[in-house]
From TrEMBL:
Key words of the record: Hydrolase, Signal
One MF annotation (Gene Ontology) recorded for this entry: hydrolase activity
A Pfam family assignment: Lipase_GDSL_2
Signal peptide: 1-27
Family annotation (InterPro entries): Ester_Hydrolysis_Enzymes, SGNH_hydro, SGNH_hydro_sf
UniProt protein name: SGNH/GDSL hydrolase family protein
Top-rank lineage group of the source organism: Bacteria
Gene3D superfamilies: SGNH hydrolase
Length: 249
């Protein structure tokens, strides 16, 4: 990386911090969907990278071309109307907030409830969980993150849901990315200990040549990268969907 690119990366890291700390409301404000007997519902929980924030010319906003939308499209092409994914991503939030019900309360009618109550009211069979970036920005410890994700997974399992953990996409700022790697290690640890599926987006994106060019700022992917992330999600989620659909016949 040349000096100009290095300076730009540092600036983008600061922009990312300001953006992530500003709560953003999920578009999922309707009543939770009720499935038909042969339909599989999937809830996607996470931060602004789940919601689908992309930045351009200093302006960051949620947009339709995000990983959850691309995942829904791929599942629809394979399984039709039998699968529905709902995006409950909220910008600026952490796993502890999802656990405690202290995230943005406007993001759906049950968003202000603690995790057990909120998930208990959901008809979803599969639950996607994507956090880590704001834990870095809010100076949480990896141990705090580990405890929160462990509770989220154990509670989901106790309620008969299939949790799927996702690691965060990497951050272009090397200092922040090193701290994020410690959070990612905790997500991997929880997945291994609790024996739940893992979509390791951090490892995948980091392996892409020139992945930093696919980022819109210091944390949020461009639509092209959201699409690639969705392909990784699909590889893990679709076999789970297939098992559930086969058991509905």
């Amino acid at each position: 990386m040349n000096r100009r690119a290095a300076i730009a990366a540092g600036v983008l890291g600061v922009v990312s911090a300001l953006t992530l700390l500003a709560p953003t409301t999920s578009a999922a404000t309707a009543e939770p969907p009720t499935p038909s007997p042969t339909q599989v519902l999937i809830d996607a929980y996470g931060d602004s990278t789940t919601l689908g924030i992309t930045c351009s010319d200093g302006h960051c906003a949620a947009q339709a071309r995000n990983a959850v939308t691309y995942l829904q499209q791929a599942l629809y092409e394979h399984d039709g109307e039998r699968v529905r994914v709902t995006n409950y991503g909220v910008g600026g939030t952490m796993a502890t907030q999802l656990r405690d019900g202290t995230g943005n309360r406007r993001a759906g009618p049950t968003a202000g409830l603690p995790w057990r109550e909120r998930l208990g009211a959901s008809h979803a069979r599969i639950v996607l969980i994507n956090y880590g970036i704001n834990e870095v920005m809010q100076n949480q410890t990896p141990e705090q993150f580990y405890a929160a994700e462990t509770t989220l997974v154990q509670t989901a399992r106790a309620l008969g849901k299939e949790p799927v953990l996702q690691t965060s996409n990497p951050m272009p700022d090397n200092r922040l990315n090193t701290r994020l790697a410690a959070m990612v290690a905790m997500t991997r640890r929880v997945a291994a200990e609790q024996q739940v599926p893992l979509v390791d987006q951090y490892a995948y994106v980091s392996s892409l040549p020139d992945w930093k060019t696919l980022m819109s700022d210091g944390a949020h992917p461009k639509p092209e990268l959201y699409r690639l992330k969705a392909e990784q999600d699909y590889r893990v989620v679709e076999p789970l969907v297939r098992l559930l659909l086969d058991h509905t016949h």
